[in-house]
Amino acid sequence: MVTLTFTFAIVYKQTPTTTRYYRNNHNFQIYGHQKFKVGNIESFGNVFLWVSEYGGHWSAAGNIPGKPNAMYNNTVVFAPQETQAYHSVSPSGQPQWTAYDNHLFGQNVTLSEGKKVITLAEYQAMDPAHYDVGSTWTKEVPPPATMVEWGRTLLLS
To answer: Can you give the chain as a three-state secondary structure string?
Structure first.
C-alpha cells in the first residue's frame, strides 16, 4: 500500500524585506491549480496531475532581482476542461523563466505572450538555446496506471 502525501512549498529564505524563496520539490500533487504566486518559486522534480495551469499567472521575475522563477524536471498533466496554461512569456528586456526539462500532457497546453497565445514549440523556437530546453508537450494524456506509477516511484525514491 502506498500512502499519498501532499506537501506544499516551504519558506526557504525570508529577509526583513519580506522576500520569500520557495522550493517546491519532489511532490506528488493531485488538485486543480498550482497556487504559488508570490515570492520566488523553484519548482522541480514534481508530478502534478489534473492541474488547471502551471505557472500561468506567475511573473517570471519573482521578487528577488536577478533570480527569476524556476520550474524544471516536472511532469504535469493538465485537466482536460481547464485552461491548460503553462508559464507566460515575459516582454522583451524582462527576465524570462528558468524553465527546462518539463514534460507536459494535455490537448491544448499554451503560453501567453501578452494577449497572444502560443504553443510550447513556438516559444522554444524564439530562443532554442535558452527557452524551455528539453521540455516536451504531448496531447495524449497517459493512462491512470502510468500516472499512479509515477507517484509511486516518486514517493518511494
So the answer is: CCCCCCCCCEEEEECCCCCEEEEEECCEEECCCCCCCCCEEEEECCEEEEECECCCCCCCCCCCCCCCCEEECCEEEECCCCCCECCCCCCCCCCCCEEECCEEECCCCEEEECCEEECHHHHHHHCCCCCCECCEEECCCCCHHHHHHHHHHHHHC
Query: pLDDT tens digit string along 56-84?
Result: 877 787 777 778 889 999 999 999 888 89
Nine cell digits for residue 48: 502534478
pTM given for the model: 0.84
Domain ranges (residues) in the chain: 19-141
User: Among 33, 109, 110, 21, which residue's Cα sits nearest to residue 70?
Assistant: 21
pLDDT, greater one: 68 or 148: 148
